[in-house]
Task: inverse folding
């Protein structure tokens, strides 16, 4: 499986563009690069049965997030509040940052 360059980072705000949770917004919790997937807060919730253990003495049904493919999420611009494809921009000091294609606002601080 080919691992693509990921334009999304942890703690970014993203919009779901496909699937059962289409048009929902959320914050990225984790990125799984080997599988080209991303975990988004309160999106793609699934129920898992768990045995009693030290962390959960009762056991039972636990609801948690499941990974979504990277192609099904888009980065949100903090200024124009729209889903965008970021562009790479080189600053005067030589740093590379992500920027919005629409408003040229830097996404990375």
Result:
């Amino acid at each position: 499986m080919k691992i693509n360059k990921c334009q999304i980072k942890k703690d970014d705000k993203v919009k779901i563009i496909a699937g059962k949770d289409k048009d929902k917004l959320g914050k990225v919790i984790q990125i799984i690069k080997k599988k080209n997937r991303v975990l988004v807060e309160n999106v793609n919730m699934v129920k898992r049965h768990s045995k009693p253990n030290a962390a959960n003495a009762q056991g039972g049904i636990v609801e948690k997030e499941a990974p979504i493919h990277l192609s099904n999420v888009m980065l949100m611009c903090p200024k124009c509040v729209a889903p965008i494809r970021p562009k790479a921009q080189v600053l005067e000091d030589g740093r590379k940052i992500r920027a919005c294609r629409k408003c040229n606002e830097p996404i990375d601080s």
